[in-house]
Design brief:
alpha+beta; 3-stranded antiparallel sheet; 9 helices
Amino acid sequence: MDYAEFKKRFSKLPLIVGRDAVQLEKAGQAMRNQLNRWQSKGLIVRLKKGIYMLNRDDRRVEPSRIFLANRLYGPSYVSLEFVLNFYGLIPERAADVTCVTTKKTARFINEFGTFIYQHIKPDAFRGFKSAKDEAGLPVFIAEPEKAVVDFIYLNLSKFAKPEKEQFAQSFRFQNMEKLSAKKIMFYASLFSNRKLLSAAKEFCVFIKENKR
């Protein structure tokens, strides 16, 4: 298969899975070699082992970084600092796309940036929603309250008494008027972690005090 035919087959898709491409040729190794050559020429972009995109000029779909994060490593959903900034809950823009997964911790770096995955227990793998990105592609993103709880849980070692001061000064939480304390405590309970529950309670007090 030449590149023109390959481009025609995949230009309308957001990603190219290597194993799907290999199945297009009877000689699978020949296609693997082609993928390597096209990558070296800049015709396709390697996102991680086995996942590619067409180059910017040839692809017709431009997926978001959230979509890429979901597809690079799963099951996963985008959460933590990236989502806290997305909802305006912290002022600092997250350069990396931060996610949680039930699989082991992982990190991938490609031309779209750094994608970081933190492990949580399966029982706590809830509190995310399905949405559409700018290209109309499906994405999984944490609800605001779950992003808060995921962030606290994965930063428990950084919390010292009193937590409320850290929420305001170290992490600079803001715009919390619409957060539900009930949801925060529910999501915190999924982790079965006393320290997390204590920190979550402090955060709910912090919300209440800052709504006045």
